[in-house]
Amino acid sequence: MNLPDFLIIPSELITDTALQPLDREVYGIIYWASKMKNEKCTMSNQTIATLLNANPFSVSHAISRLAQRRYIFVKFTEDGSREEMLPLVHMKHNPWSNAQGGCANAQGGVAQMNNRIIIDNNKEKEINKEKEIHSVSPLVGEPILVAQDAKNSIVPLTDLEKWQMATELNVPLWVVKEVEENFWNYIEEPKNRKKYKTSYKTIYRWVQMGLQKGNYKNNNEVEVMMLQSQHPDLIARSKAIKEMAKKEGLVE
Q1: In 94-198, which ranges are continuous DSSP H helix?
Q2: How many CB atoms neighbour CB 194 within 10 A?
Q3: Residues 6+ apart with CB under 8 A from 139
Q4: Which residue blocks in the chain are alpha helix, DSSP H?
Q5: Quick check: 72 and 66 in contact, CB under 8 A?
Q6: In the predicted model, what is the mean pLDDT of residues 126-131?
Q7: What is the pLDDT of residue 25?
Q8: Percentage of the chain exceeding pLDDT 70
Q9: DSSP-assigned letters across all residues of 216-252
Q10: What pLDDT digit, counting tens, does each position of 221-230 carry?
Q11: What are the phi and psi torsion angles at 74 (to 5°)?
Q12: Does the structure show a pLDDT above 60 at 120?
């Protein structure tokens, strides 16, 4: 499979500073597969990673962020396997019309993006019928998707969840990160993914097993202090202070 000539990335994603550059590219792949090719986007993390010359683990995190920020909807089968990824930011205008902001082109046009148009009616009915986590805000009429939680499904851990797990198990943060990476590499095989229901509980158990086998050790006093300093909020605050100092010309 080869990349298309171009990927469509909505301006809403481009201006969202909470996203990473790879997140936007992954969205472009999902949109291309499901809309431009008129097919379902059932690609594996490995396939997307190959197309974008990226790491499958990084792609997994990108998909999680896109789902959490309601740019995509991820459907799962009853056994916990990912079935399909649906883009939630769509073209509103006719892509063949210059008058509506598009570019008339026999091989494909470029159109303005609507901020958040939910998937086509058939897909919307299908999601509601299957009782997926989906609702519409009575105030603004835009879709609200409840973020998929690592404690209830197979999605990457957030930075806070990693820190909380490391604190609860009293291990260095790098241990949790290493075990999580091993977990995602392991479940790249569909037959392995079926064994697990949630990523959080599984990674938690794997860290416990590593401690029991002597592969990892609990924190010493210095490591406890280091872990406390690695709380995501503290890191974000420190980063914000550094950026402010740069803007003020206090540091280079």
Answers
A1: 121-129, 159-169, 173-186, 190-193
A2: 13
A3: none
A4: 11-14, 21-31, 45-52, 56-68, 121-129, 159-169, 173-186, 190-193, 199-213, 221-229, 232-247
A5: yes
A6: 44
A7: 94
A8: 73
A9: S----HHHHHHHHHT-HHHHHHHHHHHHHHHHTTS--
A10: 888 888 888 8
A11: -105, 120
A12: no
Run of H or E including 135: strand 135-136
pLDDT of residue 219: 92
Q: Residues 52-68: what's their mean pLDDT?
A: 88
- Cα–Cα distances in Å, from 232 out to 11, 34, 114, 207, 220? 28, 35, 33, 20, 21
* CB crowding 97-132: b at 16 or more within 10 Å, else e: eeeebbeeeeeebebebeebebbeeebeeebeeeee
- Token pair for residue 111? 């159109």
Alpha-carbon distances of 118 from 77, 90, 147, 183, 189, rounded to whole Å: 21, 7, 16, 32, 31
CA 239 from chain center: how many Å? Answer: 22
Interhelix angle 45-52/56-68, rounded to 10 degrees, is 110
- Of 78, 91, 43, 79, whose CA–CA distance to 63 is shortest? 43
| Encoded amino acid at 79, one letter | D
pTM of the model: 0.48
**Domains located in the chain, CATH noted:** 11-144 (1.10.10.10), 159-247 (no CATH)
Candidate ranges 52-61, 101-110, 242-251; pick with highest mean pLDDT: 52-61
Q: What pLDDT is attached to residue 68?
A: 81
Dig out the tokens for 247 from the structure: 């803007």
